[in-house]
Write a structure and sequence with these properties.
This protein is α/β, with parallel strands linked by helices. It is 39% helix and 19% strand. The protein binds nicotinamide-adenine-dinucleotide. Keywords: Oxidoreductase.
């Protein structure tokens, strides 16, 4: 029998906001009781930043902005590299903090932490390579060039599902482009962001360049509506993005958005069915289904539908091992809280009762030693109506919907019939079909016959209700900088 141990909270950093070098004690946003999702038990109380803390953080980030923008690129390169090395040196600690803050299994949390090292190393190489352009002009003789400049102070709002990865992948390009940042992690998971900011200071990045104000919707709203914010980058749900855009409209603040997804995974009869089924299970249940790019809509060609469904059922029952998140054997952890359990089980129930879906695997909460935590079984629902709620809305839990299609045209129509446009996956041995579909699918990213990681060199993001702009690669730097054009009459 697995004994779920209490959260390993001894590594939690001071939960107070980090503004400049200081940890202001007079926070006025109230308190949040942190709950460890694997046990459902309370750990520590998190003091939440309030409007005064936001004012203080914005003033601090503004006063550091000029110094950071004017820091020579080779020095910014060294400082970002140094931060990468400190994250690497503290990888076990950061991993343990993430396990304790949201119940991510230690093996997955370790992978997220390594990805952050990779992102920081990658972006440390960019500050000295951000170049402008020279433009031909007329009708009079002139020399005209453009340069990239930082926006200034960037408000960065992140969600709770992979908080270290979220903070690293956005702060990396924002700092490389010369911005100062104010990170607002959710009240549920403030700890990795705070530790990350402590390491930034330790790396020698000037005080005020990276600030953290933990809190919920109230502090987020105060931050994004602040007149001292020059750009907003938001990762989270479409519902919140709408509110942020409404508020940003008041100050005409530019916004980058990384939102949700309902990514289709298309399996054609000519695919290697064994590996396609294994991939389908991996893509949908990783991080207990709490991931924006998870392939949660499986579209299977008629001719192989029954074979694929039985392979997926088998794999979904033996691929993921539920257990204590601190154990290296565990690959399936809890979802974030009781509200998520209720929402996910409600959606499964409606898929059965009102949409005729067939639950062929899972469908319930784990009992016994897991009953106090928020553990849900990997769930596969077959014969789902592609317009049903379960196939259209983000579940953000370990649920895979399987839909049938008869030919390529219908597959594309079903795949694109969603408000989301983040990622898509294609399994086929026909290379021409693969390229044809990559052209047809309305998503920001397409993975063909396998998805092996997310290196920081690739543009990451989606369209439609999945977002605006790309983090990753050169596009990440372009998002966090703007063009200035200079004309010199000759
Ligand atoms: P959420 O929108 O509820 O919250 C996200 C963040 O916004 C939190 O920090 C929250 O406190 C803050 N917030 C809430 N109301 C606000 C307001 N009015 N003003 C400013 N900030 C506010 O999302 P969530 O439930 O925490 O996260 C899950 C969502 O995030 C899913 O939709 C998921 O797909 C998405 N996500 C996207 C990516 C990506 O890269 N595309 C990555 C991870 C998660």
């Amino acid at each position: 029998m697995t004994i779920i141990k209490d959260a390993p909270t001894e590594l939690f950093p001071d939960p107070l906001p980090l503004i400049g070098k200081g940890r202001p004690r007079s926070v006025n946003g109230g308190l949040h009781q942190h709950i460890y999702p694997a046990t459902g038990r309370p750990t520590i109380e998190v003091p939440l930043a309030g409007p005064d803390d936001v004012d203080h953080a914005v003033a601090t980030a503004r006063s550091a902005a000029r110094e950071w923008r004017d820091t020579p690129p080779n020095v910014r390169r060294r400082l970002l590299w140094q931060l990468a090395k400190l994250v690497e040196a503290n990888i076990e600690e950061l991993t343990a903090i993430q396990v304790a803050e949201n119940g991510t299994p230690i093996v997955s949390a370790g992978r997220y932490a390594s990805s952050v090292v990779d992102v920081l190393e990658y972006y440390s190489g960019w500050p000295d390579k951000l170049v402008g352009q020279v433009h031909p002009v007329w009708p009079v003789a002139a020399f005209d060039y453009s340069v990239r400049e930082p926006h200034g102070v960037v408000a960065i709002i992140i969600p709770w599902n992979s908080p270290l990865f979220s903070v690293g992948t956005v702060v990396g390009p924002a700092l490389a482009a010369g911005n100062t940042v104010i990170v607002k992690p959710p009240e549920l998971t403030p700890f990795t962001s705070l530790r990350f900011a402590e390491l930034a200071l330790q790396a020698g990045i000037p005080a005020g360049v990276v600030n953290v104000v933990p809190g919920g919707a109230a502090v987020g709203a105060a931050l994004v509506s602040h007149a001292g914010i020059d750009m907003i980058h938001f990762t989270g749900s479409g519902r919140t993005a709408t509110r942020i855009l409404q508020s940003a409209a008041e100050n005409l603040t530019p916004v980058g958005l990384e939102l949700g997804g309902k990514s289709p995974n298309l399996i054609f009869a000519d695919a290697d069915l064994e590996s396609a089924a294994a991939a389908a299970v991996r893509y949908s249940f990783q991080n207990a289904g709490q991931g924006c790019v998870n392939g949660t809509r499986l579209l299977v060609e008629d001719a192989v539908f029954d074979d694929v469904v039985s392979l997926v059922k088998e794999r979904s029952e033996d691929t993921y091992r539920v257990g204590d998140p601190v154990s290296p054997e565990t690959t399936l952890g809890p979802v974030i809280n009781q509200a998520a359990v209720d929402r996910i089980l409600g959606m499964i129930d409606r898929a059965k009762t009102s949409s005729g879906g067939r639950v062929i695997s899972g469908g319930a909460r784990y009992g016994g030693e897991f009953a106090d935590g928020y553990f849900l079984q990997p769930t596969v629902i077959a014969d789902v109506d592609p317009r049903a709620e379960i196939a259209q809305d983000e579940v953000f839990g370990p649920v895979l919907s399987v839909v049938r299609f008869s030919d390529e045209e219908q597959a594309v129509a079903i795949a694109n019939d969603t408000k989301f446009g983040l990622a898509s996956y294609i399994q086929t041995s026909d290379i021409t079909r693969a390229h044809r579909l990559a052209n047809e699918l309305d998503t920001g990213m397409v993975w063909i016959n396998g998805a092996g990681g997310l290196p920081p060199s690739i543009p990451f993001g989606g369209g439609k209700d999945s977002g605006v702009g790309r983090i990753g690669g050169l596009e990440g730097l372009q998002l966090f900088s703007r063009t200035k054009n200079v004309w010199i009459a000759l």
